[in-house]
Amino acid sequence: MTSETTATRAGLLALPFETRELATEHLRLRPLTRADLEHRSENYQKRSDVVRYLRWEAHDHEEPAENLEKRIALERLTRNGDGLIFAVELCATDGSTDHRVIGDISLSVKSDRDAQVEIGWVFHPAVHGRGFATEAAKALLAVAFDELGAHRVYAELDAANEASARLCDILGMTREATLRERDHVDGDWHDVAIFGLLEREFRAPNAE
Ligand SMILES: CC(C)(COP(=O)(O)OP(=O)(O)OC[C@H]1O[C@@H](n2cnc3c(N)ncnc32)[C@H](O)[C@@H]1OP(=O)(O)O)[C@@H](O)C(=O)NCCC(=O)NCCS
Fold first, then answer.
1. What span, in angstroms and rounded, lies between the C-alpha atoms of 113 and 15?
2. 2 pLDDT exceeds 70?
3. How far does the centroid of ligand 1 lie from the alpha carbon of residue 67, in Å?
4. Residue owning the nearest CA to atom 43 of ligand 1
5. Mean pLDDT (whole number) for 142-149
6. CA 20 to 30 Å from 163, out of 65, 155, 172, 191?
7. What is the pTM of this model?
8. Whose C-alpha lies nearest to ligand 1, atom 29?
9. Is the CB of 170 under 6 A from ligand 1?
10. 106 with 117: CB under 8 angstroms?
11. Does residue 16 have a cis bond before it (omega within 30 degrees)?
12. Relative to the CA of 52, which ligand 1 atom is closest?
């Protein structure tokens, strides 16, 4: 989408928006499929160290089958509340097509009228710290701003989630707010941090 088109549509997202595959230097981002169900036993989302800070509905702690079914259906954005979930595959280095799923990453429409989009991510601990979440998130931010016409993309995270906060920093997001004791999880109150990135900050990261 050109900036002129974006300006014309200011305050509105380019809906409907269909999911598609994305390729980055080391990764393939593809819509989550039913075949992903077959790998549930080794699903990284079952691990307590992975789900510790997860709050949003698509990553329920127990991840019952119907949830994953619901997630798989989330592949077309038409209205507020819709989301796109991408399985992130690490491309094989031997030229084969035997790619390994190392995480997932999502975009969801929070307000079409105000062009507000939420981003979320979960990666397998075996690959943490290798830059893959950063690489995937950058690709998805480009989709959000260039194709979907987002004005602001934000992430909500447990305020204690240092890895996620660091990822937000790397992406150029600003810590906009801390919502004190917004979540009650396993008997404890947790603060929630909101990080946001505006379209103009995405286009000119060092301008402000
Ligand atoms: C948040 C998460 C996606 C980051 O994934 P990742 O693959 O480690 O990310 P990257 O390799 O791209 O690294 C991003 C930055 O985070 C840093 N980081 C990674 N793990 C960290 C940790 N435990 N504590 C502090 N910083 C950490 C990396 O060092 C890197 O910063 P640097 O470039 O300055 O070194 C991953 O930790 C995760 O899936 N966590 C569990 C699920 C979760 O909490 N999701 C977020 C819900 S809002």
1. 11
2. no
3. 25
4. 122
5. 96
6. 65
7. 0.86
8. 129
9. yes
10. no
11. yes
12. 44
Q: Radius of gyration of the chain from Cα atoms?
A: 17
Average pLDDT of span 173-197:
96
Would you state the structure tokens that stand for residue 52, as one six-digit string?
Answer: 């510790």
Domains of the chain, residue spans: 19-202
Other Cβ atoms less than 10 A from the Cβ of 62: the count is 8
The number of angstroms, rounded, from the C-alpha of 155 to the middle of its chain's C-alpha atoms is 8
Residue whose CB lies within 8 A of the most ligand 1 atoms, among 63, 101, 123, for a mutation test: 123
**Amino acid in the structure at residue 168:** C
Report the topology of domain 19-202.
Aminopeptidase (3.40.630)
Please report the pLDDT score of residue 67 as a whole number.
67
Distances (CA, A) of 108 to 47, 80, 97, 98, 188: 24, 8, 29, 29, 27
* Ligand 1 atom nearest 134 alpha carbon: 12
CA 50 / ligand 1 centre spacing (Å): 11
